[in-house]
Amino acid sequence: MITYRTYQTGDEKRIVQLWNASLPKDPIMPNRFRNVVLLDGNFDPKGMCLAFDGERLVGCVFAIRRLTPMTGNDLEPENGWMTFFFVDQQYKRCGIGRELLQNATAFLHSHGIKHVFFASYAPNYILPGIDEETYSEGYQFLLAHQFEKLYSPVAMDYNLVSYVRPESILHLKEKRMLEGYTFTQCHDKDLYEVIQFANLTFNPDWGRAIREGILQGLPLHRILVVRKNEKIVGFCMYGGYEGVPDRFGPFGVDPDQQGKGLGKIILHECLYQMKAEGLHGAWFLWTGEASSAGYLYKKTGFKTTRRFHVMRKDI
User: Fold this and answer.
1) What is the CA radius of gyration of the chain?
2) Interstrand relation of 281-287 and 303-307 (parallel, antiparallel or unpaired)
3) At what angle do helices 167-178 and 262-276 cross, to 10 degrees?
């Protein structure tokens, strides 16, 4: 007989074991599960919906809502997220996933949530959305339960083994420097401005990534800053997410400064520095393939490695 309940202390070992058996392309270590799930400021054990056959864990759906704002006092009270789900292979097509999804949805609905997303949650998303190619059953499951596809971000990788910084980039950098632009590694004096620039020009999650990355030991030299007449107009970084040194981003240039090649310059500055540090690759999980950033990445030589679908259901 299948029974259902929410997370209790001690469940994490079985959750990680079933996760790794169910999602072999995206395994997780216990310490990472602890860091990105249990220690998330928005974690609520009532959102971790579990299914058991006796003592055996056979399914899990995790739902989350904001208890702490990303910035200011915005708790996004109408939005909730489901960031992962899985059912034991031997127990599929028994209605367990449907029951777990209903329980997770009821949890979110009880807190006034109107829109449920898979899986565009920040700060601790596992993947940007559902990878249809890898998890076709999961994608069909979401569609069957009234989730609709919103957009499809991609992950990209760049092999640094043969990387050489192009002469054209060096010449362009020199030209911009003559115009008053500076390209430097970050120092303490830059921190407040670069975090505010990331928050206000792009996304509060970017400012958070800078702040939390540094608190977790990110060396300041892994943040590069572009200024024009002392005003920050761009930045990029690597190694800021979960301390993974070859994970690139975030990265952005002030929209008012685009068209000058600043993004191209700082991207290559970053890749050059990563290569000089001994890294063999650069990768990230989330960009719009048809966006200006996506175009720049592809032109630079980044290859699309995975495609995800961000899904939404109104409840």
Assistant:
1) 21
2) unpaired
3) 120
Compute the CA torsion angle 233, 159, 124, 29 (nearest 10 deg): -150
Q: Residues near 199 by Cβ (< 8 Å), separated by ≥ 6? A: 71, 206, 207
Residue 42 φ then ψ, to 5°: -100, 5
Cα–Cα distance for residue pair 88/279, rounded to 1 Å? 37
* The total number of residues written for the chain in this structure: 315
Euclidean distance between CA atoms 160 and 284, whole angstroms: 14
CA separation for the pair 118, 150 (Å, rounded): 10
Question: What's the rounded Cα separation, in Å, for the pair 89 and 265?
Answer: 48
User: What one-letter code names the amino acid at 309?
Assistant: H
Walk along the chain (315 residues) and give the pLDDT tens digit of each residue.
Answer: 999 999 999 999 999 999 999 999 999 999 999 999 999 999 999 999 999 999 999 999 999 999 999 888 889 999 999 999 999 999 999 999 999 999 999 999 999 999 999 999 999 989 999 999 999 999 999 999 999 999 999 999 999 999 999 999 999 999 999 999 999 999 999 999 999 999 999 999 999 999 999 999 999 999 999 999 999 999 999 999 999 999 999 999 999 998 999 999 999 999 999 999 999 999 999 999 999 999 999 999 999 999 999 999 999
| Domains in the chain, CATH or no CATH each | 2-126 (3.40.630.30), 162-279 (3.40.630.30)
User: Is the CB of residue 20 less than 8 Å from the CB of residue 81?
Assistant: no
- Residue 249 · residue 284 · CB < 8 Å: yes
